[in-house]
Amino acid sequence: MNKKTSIxxxxxxxTIIAILIGFIIGAIFLVWAxxxxxxxxxxxxxxxxxxxxxxITTLAYAAPVILTGLSVAFxxxxxxxxxxxxxxxxxxxxxxxxxxxxxxxxAVIHIPLCxxxxxxxxxxWSLVCGVMKVKRGIHEVLSFIxxxxxxxxxxNYVVNIEGVKKESGGEATKDLLDSARLIVDGNNCAIxxxxxxxxITWVIIEKTTLGYKLKAVGFNKFSAQYAGIxxxxxxxxxxxxxxxxxxxxxxxQVMGMGGRVAQFASQEGYGFEGITVALIGASNPLxxxxxxxxxxxxxxxxxxxxxxxAPSEIINIxxxxxxxxxxxxxxxxxxxxxxxxxxxxx
Amino acid sequence: MDMLIxxxxxxxxxxxxxxxxLLFAALGSCFSERSGVVNxxxxxxxxxxxxxxxxxxxxTGNGLLAFLCGGLAGALFGLIHAIVCVSLHADQTxxxxxxxxxxxxxxxxxxxxxxxxxxxxxxxxxxxxxxxFDGMFKSGSFAYNVFSVYIMAYLVFVVAWICWxxxxxxxxxxxxxxxxxxxxACESLGIDVYKVRYICVILSGFLAxxxxxxxxLATVSQFRPTVIVGQGFIAIAAVxxxxxxxxxxxxxxxxxxxxNGVKSLATQSNxxxxxxxxxxxxxxxxxxxxxFVGRANAPAANGKPYIKSR
Amino acid sequence: xxxxxxxxxxxxxxxxKEIVKRFGNFTANDHINLKVHKGEVHAILGENGAGKSTxxxxxxxxxxxxxxxxxxxxxxxxxxxxxxAIELGIGMVHQHFMLIQPFTVTDNxxxxxxxxxxxxxxxxxxxxxxxxISEKYGMAVDPDAKIEDISVGMQQRVExxxxxxxxxxxxxxDEPTASLTPQEIDELMEIIKNLTADGKSIILITHxxxxxxxxxxxxxxxxxxxxxxxxKVGEVTENDLAxxxxxxxxNFKVEKKEQEAGKLALSIKDLHAKDYRGVEILKGxxxxxxxxxxxxxxxxxxxxxxxxxxxLTGLKKAESGEITMAGTDIFNKTPKETFEAGVxxxxxxxxxxxxxLEFSVADNLILQHFEEAPFSxxxxxxxxxxxxxxxxxxxxxxxxxxxxxxxPAKTLSGGNQQKVIIAREVTNDKELLIAVNPTRGLDVGAxxxxxxxxxEQRNKGRAILLVSFELDExxxxxxxxxxxxxxxxxxxxxxxxxxxxxxxxxMAGGKNHE
Lengths: 346, 310, 514
What we know:
A: ABC transporter involved in vitamin B12 uptake, BtuC; membrane (chain A)
């Protein structure tokens, strides 16, 4: 295979093409809204990279979606579909917040403690659905959807409990203690946790016997069983890890950005954004880092679009289109390869 | 006794208002899933139906026309899903996820360019869906609560029956169920799998769109970005709960609807936190699943792109 | 079996002339000719992958031929879809049944051509018509049973009825006996006779010579996509046909040295188990397998073989009984425990149970050993050890294409996928090897390869339990044949003395008259 055809075979190319098409379709909508696409896209870019402070904020936006993206990517690679990352994220937020508010220990202990609590909460939330799947054959998509909502109302309930609720003003919890915040010199450093976990996830999937086992069960449960792998246990392990990652996503959100948990008016969408991030990152943990940063940049930059009177929803439209064109990347691949072949023949 | 009847009235009323959006969407989902196309984009299709319904009502003042337009807008998204999944063999979950971003994105986008806000203005009562026996009963009475709800809240049950009839009694229903089980067999018997799936996916969008439009044209009286959030997924849950059949989906949606009635009653009594009460439908679903339903066997070819040979 | 021809040599119903079908660079059919007469049984003989199915898919309108013409009843016709083929009176019974599992027999037969009353499907009329046709050709079916609940033989009758319901005059039967018992095969031959007596023509795709001799008038041989010849079946021998099919002389006999069985390896006593519906399927089965012998388990599908193998490999729990492997208790143990006790297996469904198709060949070769040295250490995989192991086995077992270690297993042909499994299981070097339908769907070359390795294992002193629906395979490999019927061993025959008639009798529930 020569270099040119190997580029045509690489999935990366088609992700880039999908992103480009997403921006083109976004541009059409912007023109419809009476906004110059160039101006809007420049605004997004400018808000992200103009100041170091903004780059840091972008990365702060990226950290939680990288983690939910990892959660979903891990589930895709191990043959389950974690559509419940949303709920696991929420209970993770809650667990981290409660530990962050009520346990007063030095930061070196406090931060890991919050993260472990969030991971445990997320893992547990996911495991309950896993056990129902393995023991009773209940469709995980269904139970995940239910658990997303239970988490949502649970969080709203806890937020409003006397003693947890902030004393004055607003329906939110008290602030986390400073020792539980992921803030160094006023800068959010959640991204480091996200990147480290991405690398660890990559190692687990690609290099370990655990990853081998989980993938084998994910691809073909029956063969794995035949070969002596306990498929039920593997599915539960995979779901626990996936849930823990989403839970940690919730932790870094509240420990970094929020500082407290506010009452939700509607689902936050981090879990669903995680699906998009996982797809753009081709379910590869390292790809997810870049996909998450891209998403973070779009979210942060998009929020500045109102300054030029452009609807910030354009971001959702663009991201949705990107996902659609990733879904049909094989069509482009076949097209390009056949063109490539014809050229070679001539 | 009077108290009991009044409360029962409130419960039925709340159930009659909460069930239709879910049931429309769930029936749509049955068509798509049973023909072999996973459609988790129901949520996005509902949202686009909701906004289109609201905008049409605001511009034309005709509630029924608005309702229909909501369905058509949903159908358009169904068409997109069909093109991507059926003709281009995309991963159906991925495509549905995309629809869930694009639908709400476009919905709010439209509000912004039309109304310069993320919400539409409130819809006048005359431009909403008509009510049954409008004005015949005293507001707040049992009869009013039970018999004077929006016409579509009753019609949706007729629609559910029609879906059941189509599924099990007609040729098309047989073909669509067969396509979801064994598309190669269908193709070998001269059934056009693509055509059947296109019709089903577009129909699923149409019905989801109607469900969304019901929300803005009956329940809420305006479009806000949060009017749908989650209902599409609950409809999907109801379908899985009902083992992918219209009659089962009806049961699933009624559980949610009735729990919603219980919720509105309990909220009035103000004893327990509203957040705890709000969990009821989800917890009940889970318990019902564990206790009675168990394994939901999806159609054999569900989610697998069918590629024509030739 | 007595043979009687109903062929009318003056009426050609289907004629295919110089058919070429290419897929990209690959030529599946290279100028093939076929002429079928009214009332004729015309066999198409060729190895797996020779292009038989492609040719029939062209005739059935599923593929468009690259070159060549098709004449139906003397008229040149461009068959553009299965629907069109059906209209032209051509019906196809696929090797892999095209049946909707949760539908009833009637629903399946009428699918696509449902009679209607208003907008409602007229199930009553449909049921009646189905019964009429099934009686006319002597094909008993239960019109109200669901496909998932009926036997393979009845499923096939449903397939044939489906075609007849549509008024087909020419029936294509693609490997119709692949999963039938000897009795069911006899019944099928009877059905074929009834059909031809009624003026129907049959195109029989097969690689089984015996069946061709039993019922076909003419036989067209295809090899590697090329037309070899059309012969009158009455004028050739089985060996002639085999030589034309393979292109060389074939040795059907498996070379096997005389050998005394050694000490007891696997012992099963009074095993009881239920199937997935909770119905008792194994009813006190007892069976011993010794070292150095091949025990063939003959039986009709559905008499408990599947469950027995699942129990032996730890996939399924039995109700009661005793199972020991070389003295170790393996009753109701996990797959891992039974494996460690010395049970290895070649599963019936290699794609479902034998391989992880998305994994590379190298990864598939360590499926039971990835947690052991040298393939991993402290939970970290050793890519080098895995690659070395793979390149060694790929070469030793001639798994093709050469150097396919890093290819996903799904890109390999069926025969080579089976070689991957055999390489793995034989390397495991366990005391017992359970082989379930080890040659299903493989071509002659691959079958020879598989048989050679099984015999080699036996010669090395391993115990072999061969479970197969191919009676020929059981008879040519086994030292001892045990017949399973209705969850019990109902007869035992020495491999040397076995004959098909007696086995067929036992498999149908007859008792040994010793």
